[in-house]
Amino acid sequence: MEVALNLLTTYIFTIGCVVIIFILFYPRSISKATLQNYVKTCAIEENISTTDLKLFMTWDLSNVSNEGKCFFNCFHEKIGLTINGVLQKKIAFGYLKRIFDRETAVFVLSECINLTGKNKCETAYQVEKCLFNVEYNRLAK
């Protein structure tokens, strides 16, 4: 447990650098301290493992546990990106327009909006992977 908390602390301190997807979707009305609290709260509530934390920090979303997937759902819910596991199109589009031109924001939203999983945790995970893949491909160009 102590190792997990140490990794969690590292994760929180490096959130600005490591978790680009979260940064892209931060509502400007929410302070960094509040966002860090959301990350910590969701990590504890969902009981994510040190393995998941390591995966998140290295951008490896291929083998995320169910708890890790539920972490994404928890965080999305806290920032208002999803409500009861449903991606909020207007809110997501507003966040996307902060980092992309309108045409690209529409494209990204169309790529990721209709993804669903067997439950809200799986859906949040699918959306997160989609957003990461789109952003990764954009930065790779």
Q: Would you mind describing this structure in some detail?
A:
The protein has nine helices and two strands; from the N terminus they run ααααααββααα. The radius of gyration is 14 Å and the shape is globular. The relative contact order is 0.13. 70% of the residues lie in helices and 3% in strands. It is an all-alpha fold. Helix 4 (32-45) runs antiparallel to helix 6. The chain has helices spanning 2-13, 15-18, 20-24, 32-45, 50-57, 66-79, 89-97, 102-112, 120-140, and strands at residues 82-83, 86-87. The chain has a single domain, classed as Recoverin, domain 1 (Orthogonal Bundle). It has a two-stranded antiparallel sheet.
Backbone structural class: mainly alpha
Elements, N to C (H/E): HHHHHHEEHHH
| Annotation field: number of helices | 9
Average pLDDT works out at: 77
Provide the gyration radius in Å: 14 Å
CATH class annotation = Mainly Alpha
Strand residue content: under 5%
Extract low-pLDDT stretches.
12-21
Helix content: 55-70%
Determine the CATH superfamily: Pheromone/general odorant binding protein domain
Largest sheet: 2 strands, antiparallel
Please give the CATH architecture. Orthogonal Bundle
- Strand order in the sheet with the most strands: 1-2
GO cellular component, one term: extracellular space
Transmembrane segments: 6-26
Keywords: Membrane, Secreted, Signal, Transmembrane, Transmembrane helix
GO molecular function, one term: odorant binding
